[in-house]
Structure formats: C-alpha cells, structure tokens
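Case study: Putative peptidase.
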Amino acid sequence: MIYLGEAVCSKRRATKVGDWLEMAKSLAGSGKQIVLSTLALVQASSELGELKRYVENGEFLIEASDLGVVNMCAERKLPFVAGHALNCYNAVTLKILLKQGMMRWCMPVELSRDWLVNLLNQCDELGIRNQF
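Here is what the predicted structure looks like once written out:
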C-alpha cells in the first residue's frame, strides 16, 4: 500500500493533483494499492478545489486528514481512510466515522500505546473493533 500526496504544507505545490494522479495510476498498474493523502489544514479556496479533485478521482481511496474531506466523501458515499491528523481519540468518534464511510483509521501520532489499548477495548465494547 502506497500513500501519495501532500498532507502537511500547501506551499509545497511543485507536484500538482494531476501529477499525483498520474503517479497513482502508474503505481496501480504495477499492482500497488494507492491511497491519496489530503491536506490536514485547508487554508484557501484553491485548496478546496484540489480536495474536490482528489475526492472525485473515481479510482483511488482517499486519506481524509480534515473533516471537510470526510464530509465530501460521505456526501458521495465514498470510502475513506481517517488520517492521523483527524482528532479521533475515542471509540464513539470512530463509530461516527464508520457510519460516514471510514474503512481504515490511522492513529493520531500523539497518542500512546496505553491510549490505543484503551481505545481498542472501547471499540470491543461497541462491537466495532474489526470494522476498520
């Protein structure tokens, strides 16, 4: 599985959406599963247009690093990966994201192993642990 895209800084735009999509198609052609990563902090309307292009790519899974992208995917009934930049710290939030189409969750980097163990126990209690 390969993640492609700019998730941190919109100022690093040397590689455009079309370029990422071309790379994704090339890699997918050699048997790789591709996930397109999106910005964690959307600051301009031009960035919203880019996010829409990612979401509407028609071929590749999206890593949603912003709740706006989660909503775009949910509106279109598209599956997505909940990125590590989403503030998702409990099982109730994961359950909501599952209802919106989440198929995988990337744990926020600031969470500890103990937090993860507790969160997975919460997921067991809600019956959702094996759904993502």
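For the exam, be able to explain this: Helices lie at 17-29, 45-55, 67-75, 91-100, 113-126.
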